[in-house]
Design brief:
Blueprint lengths: L4 E6 L11 H13 L6 E4 L11 H11 L4 E4 L10 H14 L6 E3 L11 H8 L6 H17 L3 E4 L4 E5 L13 E4 L8 H14 L2 E5 L3 H17 L8 E10 L3 H16 L5 H7 E4 L1 H14 L3 E5 L5 H12 L5
Parallel strand pairs: 1-2, 1-11, 2-3, 4-7, 7-8, 8-9, 9-10, 9-11
Antiparallel strand pairs: 5-6
Amino acid sequence: MSKVKFGITLPNRGPVVGLFTPQEVVQIAVAADEMYPAIDSVWVGDSILAKPRFECNTMLAVVADRTKNVKLGPACFASFPLRPPVVTALEWASIDLLSNGRTIWPVCLGGNPKSGGSFLTEYQAFGIDPAARIGRLEEGIEILKLLWTEDDVSFQGKHFSFENVTLEPKPACKPRPPIWLVATPTRDKEPKLVKRMMQRVARHADGWMTTRISPEDFTFGLEQLHELAHQEGKDPEAIEPCLYYNVLVNSDREAAYTEAKQFLDSYYMTDFSREEIELWVALGSAQQCAETINRFIEAGARTLTIRFPSKQQEEQLNIFVEEILPSFG
């Protein structure tokens, strides 16, 4: 089995809801970079209006300048269906060059009402029909792949069309930065829906990111992905499976639950149930958290990006690296 890689997700919504300053968020990335290779990557959340935060690409450009080792990416790029793909292609190529080719680009549809925020208001502000999200995402991915690798590109689609476009500069990462897609396949969802979402990953992506999922459903999704990748003529093992997860260490597990809930409720301006918190957060002692994380590794996760639902970000990062990561070699 490939060595499991761990990253951290920055709370770039924190400055908007009064949890951190922007400088404190960047400092978390710097601290993580100093822990490389134990911490392999740094990720930044994305939303424009639905869940206000420091803009993803702007934050990552700063982090690219302040770090030297870790890979960088959005977790995930939820606003992509709203953005002009040609502009996004240039922005990301610039970040990739600033980081000397250290980027990964996970993209998702956004629009999950359980995550808080008003996605309908966001789409209305951009004058875009939410029903067009999938088409805009799929066409946009194809456009980025072309613009990052070719010159004199022409594209004719339902949502985007242009002729003889050459993007400069192109990314440093060759042939292009990896593109991951987000999907959350669970066994209680309609089988046709699961097949469509995982087929999208198999067809368009180099990696699969998921979140708010049980280890059993992670295995279920990975099995679906491997089968569909075979059908697409792709090597299933070449598609990186990634879990976006939360960890909060406290020897008093109930206290850890209370802190995580307070943080996440504030962060997303919603009221998460205990079931939702337990699904999304490893809670308790370092040993308990390691055991919870290991269930996902046994389920097939090869990259885990971790957020700490706590105001004590660097303290939790240090505990994670010193007391949890040694469990995984």
